[in-house]
Structures
1.
Amino acid sequence: MRSWKRPWLSGLLLISPSLILLGVLVYGLIAWTVNLSMQDRHNARESKGFAGLDNYVNLFTADINDRFTHSLKNLLVFTIVFMVGTLVMGLIWALLLERGARAEGVFRTAYLFPMAVSFVASGVVWRWLMNPGEGDDAGGLNAVFGGLGLDFLQNPWWTDPDWGMAAMAVPAIWQLSGYVMALFLAGFRGIPNELREAAAMDGASNFQLYRRVLFPQLTPTVLSAMIITGHMSMKMFDLIMSVSGAQWITEVPAVYVWQTLLTSDYAKAAAISVFLLVVVAIVVVPYLIHVNRAEKRS
Amino acid sequence: MRFTRQTAVALLAVAALFSATACSSSDDPATAEKDVEVFTWWADGGEKAGLDGLVAQFGTACPDFAFVNGAVAGGAGSNAKSVLASRLQTNDPPSTFQAHAGAELSDYINAGQVEDISAEYTEWGLTSAFPKGLIDNITVDGKIYSVPANIHRANVLWSNKTVLAKAGITADATTLDAFIADLDKLKAKGVATPLALGKDWTQVMLLESVLISDLGADKFTGLWNGSTDWKGADVTAAIEKFKKLLTYSNADRDTYDWTDAEKLIMDGKAAYQLMGDWEAADLDAKGFKDYGYSVFPGNTGTFQWLADAFVLPKGAKNVAGTKCWLKTVGSAEGQKAFNVKKGSIPARTDVSSDGFPAYQQAAMTSWKGDKQVPSCAHGSACSQGLQGAIVSAAGKFSTDGDVAALQNALAAAAAQFAAKK
């Protein structure tokens, strides 16, 4: 019974339930999905055998209308606009508040609050705001533009075949900018005051202070913000389903998985899911390693 | 000691977690033999009323059995379908489930999840009660797997009478060219979007109607069984006409569901809409009386049908009960009880049309005399996979209008899913 007293064993036992659950429900199922993605199983029947990487290759070569590459293109547009949008908005808000605005707490909460709303709920509202009708049929924001005499601002929003996904990113920017602002604020607060004082002593202007002293210190914050918004964006599903529903113009891989699954094409759905997982991992894992090393150093 | 106690607590918590999931209610064997669990997505509105009518008839015809409602609401049946898929995979099928009759059933048939009931068709006299065109459409390799409870018609053109009268249109167009001439007239009179249209699947319905007009009923049916070539010049011509029709429709069609397009008709902003005949019940329910209907121009004599049907799942616990349900569904009394309330028409041709609303009486007459063709947008002509591919291709066409790309995609989809059988 001596061994029971060993702290590491008790610790291991304590975390073992979560380890087992994680092992089965996360990593076990990932392995199961990877296996499924390499089967010849395109309907509700049993697999017709091992297909190797065929399902992956077919996504790029044999998909009707290049549907998968189209969904990747949509995702790329969405991700870039979303990431840049949240970074810019978040930084602007953080700069404003960092300057010591009055009632900072109120503004901070106000900006952060959209994050508490679910993508489904905000999607329903934005679906209406981004009504693509123009002129006499205008609704939502287009009607506002029309009422203000700013007709040239009326646009088809997410129904534009090329840049629709940029409009789709607007609700996501609205929701996540406050969060990025909070990250930046924390970043600014983490910079020792001595640095600012030293810069002031050296006669740096305000612009120089931010450009040369503060911004370089924020690199880790920007990286975190990009990783967080980036991986959210790659898995985007609920927002798109509530704004446009599943359809060609706004299809991204996660929506495509759903559509494929509904038609019982299990292997293809699994292949898209695994592809998505790998892409997210390529982004997230190096970051995690980097953070881990940084923590060990400090 | 502290650690061991914590260990015990942790183990206990895990044990509780597992036992909670393992514990499930077991069926009482005495009632299980009586119960007939009917799995549908008919949870409210006219559908629920229709189901209630059918259940009442079931109570009279099958006093030995008890109806158990297994309805799963929401998502126009997609929620129910995913619940059903998981139940079928775990070999826990309901006594019977709702599915679209025709090719959409092929997924279940290929998976060996439903039983052949051709023998019952003969026994119950359904073979002669249903029109031959319907029997041909639902027979797979000489076997029949489902009993249609109702028939809806897909190729109906709805219109706002006032808008038409203002443009001086008095007679229904019977050819596509005449229809396009009417649309031009409406446009000249200031109706910006004479044809109301919704998102992808409603566009597929329109495309199918145009294909029926151009190819005729037999060649159209051939598109779905492989005897008509999707790459033919006649298909190209039909797609060109479909493209022209899109120019008369609302530009924001991809944001519209069919009810949004219906509202354009009700508001007098559009003159026409192609939609299934559930629109009649919906317009009535919304109190809009000023509507007209006709078969889609060029479709005269062709009835594009879709049907909700019930099946006998493999491994159903109460086979006798399921068969009694199916017999009720197929009976003249059952079909009448269901369809009067649901707003559809009986699949049988021997049900009296007394007591049905005006539109349904007209539809029942056409059903008897017309040629029956299936619908892809509603699953009677194509499997779910093929349907998904075609709907996606239509969505793309709505944004780029690339005729050759659409035709290639349709041909590729048909080839891909035919190969997968």
Note: The CA atoms of residues 88 and 396 of chain B lie 34 Å apart.
2.
Amino acid sequence: MQHRGTAARRGFLLSAAALALATTLGLGANPALAQQAPAKLIITAIPDDGDADRMRENFGALARHLGKAVGIPVEYMHVENYAASVTALATGRAHIAWLGAVTTAQARMQMGDRLTILGCRDIDKGFVSYFIANPSTGLGTVADLGELARAAQGKGWSFTFGSKSSTSGHMMPRKYFMDQTATTPERVFRSVAYSGSHDVVMQMVADGTHQVGALNYASWDKAADELKARAPIVYKTPPYTNYALTARADLGPELLARLRAALLTIDGSTPEGAAVLKYLKAGKFIEADISEWQGYVDLLESGIDIGG
Amino acid sequence: MGAAEMNSAALPLAARYQKRPLGHFYALLAVLLAVLAALGAAEWDWAALTDSERRAQAAARIGAWLAAFARPDLSAAFVAHAWELTLQTLSAAILGTALAVLLAWPLAMGASRAVCVGEERDAGRSAHWWPWLRPWLRHFPLRSPSALLCAACRLLQDILRAVPDFVWAIILVAMIGLGPLTGALALALNITGILAKVYSELWDGVDESRYAQVRSLGGGRIATFLYGIRPLASRNVLSFTLMRAECAIRNAAVIGAVGGGGLGAEIWYQVRFGAWDKVGTLILFTLLLTLAADLASNYVRRQLRGDAARSGAAPASCALPGSVGEATPRAAVQPSARAARPPLRPWLAAGFVALALSWSLWFMGWGNHAGEGGAPRNHLVPAAELFTGQAWENLRFFERLLKPELDLAAIGLGDPDKAAARAAQGKAVELFADYGVADFWRPAAWAAWQVELQKWFVWRVVESAAVPLAIAVIGTLLGVGGAILLTYPHSASFQLHAAQFTGESPAPWQRLLRALQLAAARASAVVARGVPEVMWAFLAIAFFGPGLVAGTLAIALHTLGVLTRVFGEAVDNQPLARFEPACGASRATTYASVAVPRVWRDWMTYAFFQFESNVRAAVVLGLIGVGGLGFQFSFNFEWFRFERAGTYLIMIILLTVLIDRSARLLKLSRVGR
């Protein structure tokens, strides 16, 4: 009995599976667009700003500017996750991505020469992170992070980074912390959390959910004065290289050259350009080379302790 | 449950006494041990509750939240925004569930032993060489090809269930690109795992003797399934599918990893900003959505059952496959009544479902313009990518997940050079360096062994599972305790109809008071259940800070809501005459000494199921800052350390498989038997 039913059952299972697949196919309706010569470029970005609508609006403006300049429609697709934006770029589901230094290095490690840089902001070659503290801690400005660590010892403070994969909200603050204190934040603070984005770090420190936090300077600078008073700066890190507009090299040298040129011409004269520059806190975009991010690749490959 | 009564009444007296459940005492002992282990294994930081300053802070935040919740942000712009998010959530959930039903059906056929393997329980027992070996052989997958297929299907459904949906979403990004459909498909994969598990358990749960006739007439496994098992379980399958659709709507509020967005992502964002008035509005929308889904699924159920009077008979709740109403014995007496009625109602129900499905397809495809500048575009097109080689080629990106980091060097295996290097650094495990096996009675030896083992990555992975397990154990117990207390005011039998069995005649003001109690209890249960545990966790983290306490509270609250409903229905399903022997006793005494013992068995089955789903929920809570296995997994995954993430993933799957298999072994899913 066991053997008699086998063939029939397999047949049924197969046909049932085929039916399920066919139904899914029916949903698809149209054949896939050919991917060879992209009729449309997709741009994505790491969600370092927690406000999705604000990102859609401003990166939508960047997409429109690039689209007008190169004559191919460019569309911004929002993701809620840093890893998803790298995955999309590395697997060709996005053609251009606004990445931080760590995510650029991650993409470089995944993609090798298939990754190229379109450019970066004028502020990206001297980026800084701030350590901030809730006024209830009684912390003033500290000369270095060793002093912060000594002040925090035994106080039971909790600490928050931004996103796990953020450069200015996690990687660099952690690196400077470890360099200057010879220990890790996990050993100094009662708990170490990852709040997700820079503006959230500032809010949570101001509210006292966490006593100390780290975030990038641009997010602190653009916050309201009332919030700044409740989350004052205690330490500024040395400058480092950060964000870049990256692209897939397989777009071809000709299209890449046009995209680079379009990026460099962004200024306040068009509404799109003005919106992008204002949102990104930049004066203009400048040329950059992938080699400027090689330090991060080396850092990641050295197996640095990044918590977790 | 009705069937429980009938079955046990039909048993001979001796058999009933033979079945005297000594197991409950073992169970209590096991629960006690589990609590001790949970408190000991994870680092509980009670400071949020004991430290007066932090308690005051938390109280202030809860106060601010409650005050803001009373005055939600009802500005036109924000309500329109919340409405948009609600529609996104709804369409993703409906589409996800519909796809999941299609995929789960064949998978469950493979995973059901009764359907796929088709062994008869007692066949060949007497003829076998070692009769005692037979029951154990049933759990050995290599005994036949079909048994192997069955085991493979079960593993597949466990993987679908265990992998968090944000991981499916990222994998799908590589396959079909970015967009709202990606989130819905990720949801579909996750629900497929859940539905397939429950379908296969329901089919396995049908008593063999009830379809033995199909077999004896020469039906093969397919015929047995189509004419025996499927019809017998169809009522439960339907109930559970609808119930799961409700849960999917609740869970869809949580996805938002890719494109789609939805209520969950927005609440998380607003919670962290302390914008409590906006959180209030969003939670209000979530509750409305949940309630609407509840009403809609009750409507469909009622139409399909063709019996309005029994509409309330099916307790419905998340992750409680056993809770579906087992009303088959009564169904047997009804065919004549049903035949007389024009068969319009099933069409109504089918039409309603079709309408909901087409709406969600339209909305997902064309109605949802989020993130593309308003130009109409068919968002369903990316699904066609699944049928290109490119999509599957892109899966190679995640290849390293399949090569988990086992850190063999630490335990002196694998490449001898690396092992020697590790040993030279003093980072290799030397288990018996200080204490030998003979020292097992010394606590210091165990501590030293643990320290040694922690040098091995895999051991740290195993230890990280303690966090979700501890959260689930404590959270479930708190929830069960709360539910037992809340069921009393929640029960219509005890608040409205008590006069019929206690013999008292309450004054009008007493009756009013009881009705108010009932309403208050039901409202709090609806809120506790309607808000998903992840949202409770968002709130608890905002109140008490991230940690085990916040996670446990979230799990306990949601469990309380879910269990109060099924506990209450179990009590209210008892005929009032059963409470009469306690005539003269107070209502509370009757509840504690008559009602609770009668339904205890059902309650514990529900509680175990809730525990299983709580373990998975606790893993997911790890992703949002509670720590432990889920946190470590997502951390490594997001840093593209896929080898390490792979090890954690194996642990997550292992946890799911272990709990699932033990539930199957204990046959807990067979409610009412």
Note: Chain A has two domains: 41-125+241-301, 128-236.
